Amino acid sequence: MSVRLIATDLDGTLLDSTPAVTARTRAALDAARERGIHVVPVTARQPIGLRAIAADAGFDGWALCSNGAYAVRLDDGRMLFAEELPAETIRSLAEALRASIPDLLFASVRDAGETFVAQHGYAAIAALADHKRDPATMGGVPLEQVLAAPSLKFVIRHPELAPAALFDTVRSLGLTGFEVTLSGAPFVEVMAEGVTKATGLARLCEHLGIDRADVVAFGDALNDVEMLRWAGHGVAMADAEPLVHDAADETTASNDEDGVAQVIERLLG
Q: Coiled coil: which residue ranges (predicted)?
């Protein structure tokens, strides 16, 4: 197949479990770029989390953050688009959830991913790996401030309940006006209605003049499913969830076995 763009998830996919970019994976990405192929990270992370590994991966162009909610250039910060979740939608969702589940905690990602507004108590149960932010820098505000403004990504968390249980509860509410997903992180992620990694990737490809048939996408989690279905060739990691395997055209080795690199090497011949 013709390949013009490689779209890759990061955690559990491109990065190994340390998490880092291995020498083999970096060599494969460089070889693709040398052929003129765009290599685009498509992630639930924000730019702060991308910067931590950008040099190791050679990322300096377009990136899709917040599960496709916005596209940003990593070299100059230029934004192509940003799809925000309205404040009224956030408030309605939070109120409905709090009526059925006590002790929930919420956070809002704003301002091109640079601002993280966390409810009082959120930082106490967070780790650096969760948002690639030191919890000591998160601060804490009353819930009303978290819910007061539009958000690129709205985060729902509980000190004890598993994200899958929270996800099921959100789905059971019967509310509309947003998209909800899981990325493997210890919280539920909510984006604007219709926003997925697939929609973000489609908008970026339109901007670049690239047909979906010429896109290869890699992923491992629920938030990658739509992207793998949309791409001309979707690749699931070996230890991906069943829904991810069902969405993909093939399965590669795990992230600790350079699964992404193996496919790129084969495609480049």
A: none
